[in-house]
UniProtKB/TrEMBL annotation:
Provenance organism: Artemia franciscana
Region (Disordered): 57-192
Extent of Basic and acidic residues compositional bias: 119-129, 147-159
Protein name: Uncharacterized protein
Sequence ranges of Basic residues compositional bias: 160-192
Length: 336
């Protein structure tokens, strides 16, 4: 069998007028590509390519009038497939001319028109939460070296410093110190007779003091003194003279303020001029006990603020007997 294959470059190009008529038949009559290719003796791929180029040219030229949309005016001229020589194309009676792509029609623009919506910025939404009382003052543009602004800043600074100074300055409480001298309570049957108290102002002189009843006891253990911590600290000397074997209340200053003072109960073991050797006790609830490890120290007499009455032992066990309870109310002192 003789081979009759012919290369594409050797094949003659399709007639341009035939292609234009074929495309017009598809566009106007609505014929199918296969039927048009058979009628005009063309390949389906050739007709399909010509139709595709026609539609591409229409999309590139949207301003072309309806009367100018015929395939003969829109479809570009077809170049011959064989470009090696011009003699082969001339043998088929075609004239090859280079055509430049036509630009847009005068007076028209290829871009879309500019509308106000495309120029107008996006709408701005106000913040959903506004809290002006968040503690921070809204800033503003100011010239700090200007006289009114400078005076305002100085005034604000002065007010802040005055507030701080007012907070730091402690307010002194002026209270009138009083002492109470009580009468011994006596039992009448099963009832306890209430004690009578006489309030004496410290500021009053001895000449203005009223006469005390004769039944007031002079014994220190029977006296009920309602003295606060400030009353005891204000006095330079304890109520009774310091003696060996007496229990005393000793003050220790941990700082300059009164709240930093602590008190310890101790037993005086020896006295030497202005100092005394004291053996301290520890407070456990309402009782005072000597610790297993002895706690002794030498203190000045001026640090002894009170001489306590002799304690009483409570309980029947050896451990209970070791605890000492004082009849004097010591709740006003920070005792350790």
């Amino acid at each position: 069998m003789v081979r009759t294959y012919q290369r594409k470059r050797d094949k003659p190009p399709p007639d341009l007028a035939t292609l234009q008529r074929a495309v017009a038949s598809i566009v106007k009559d609505g014929s199918s590509i296969r039927a048009v290719a058979e009628n005009f003796g063309l390949k389906k791929s050739t007709v399909n390519d010509a139709l595709r180029r026609y539609r591409a040219e229409l999309d590139a030229q949207p301003d072309v009038l309806e009367t100018d949309k015929s395939p003969a005016k829109v479809l570009p001229s077809e170049r011959p497939a064989n470009t090696n020589s011009t003699t082969e194309a001339a043998d088929h009676g075609e004239v090859i001319q280079d055509s430049e792509p036509e630009g847009p029609a005068p007076g028209t623009s290829g871009t879309a028109p500019i509308t106000p919506e495309s120029v107008r910025p996006h709408p701005r939404i106000d913040p959903t939460k506004r809290n002006p009382s968040n503690g921070r003052k809204r800033g503003k543009t100011r010239i700090l070296t200007d006289t009114p602004e400078k005076e305002q800043l100085e005034k604000e600074k002065h007010n802040r410093e005055a507030k701080k100074a007012k907070k730091k300055t402690p307010q002194k409480k002026i209270t009138k110190t009083k002492k109470m001298v009580g009468r011994r309570q006596t039992k009448v049957g099963n009832k306890r007779k209430p004690s009578a108290f006489i309030r004496l102002s410290v500021s009053e002189t001895s000449s203005s003091e009223p006469e005390l009843p004769d039944d007031i006891c002079d014994d220190e253990s029977d006296m009920s003194l309602d003295l606060g911590e400030d009353d005891v600290v204000a006095s330079d000397r304890p109520v009774s003279p310091i003696q060996i074997g007496k229990f005393v209340l000793v003050k220790f200053e941990l700082g300059k303020s009164k709240s930093s003072c602590v008190y310890y109960v101790g037993l005086v073991e020896s006295i030497d001029n202005d100092v005394a050797d004291v053996k301290f006790l520890r407070k456990i609830g309402p009782k005072f006990v000597f610790p297993e490890i002895e706690d002794k120290a030498t203190v000045d007499k001026k640090d002894i603020v009170l001489v306590l009455p002799d304690p009483s032992s409570s309980g029947g066990t050896a451990r209970s007997i070791a605890g000492h309870v004082f009849s004097r109310d010591l709740s006003a002192f920070n005792i350790k």
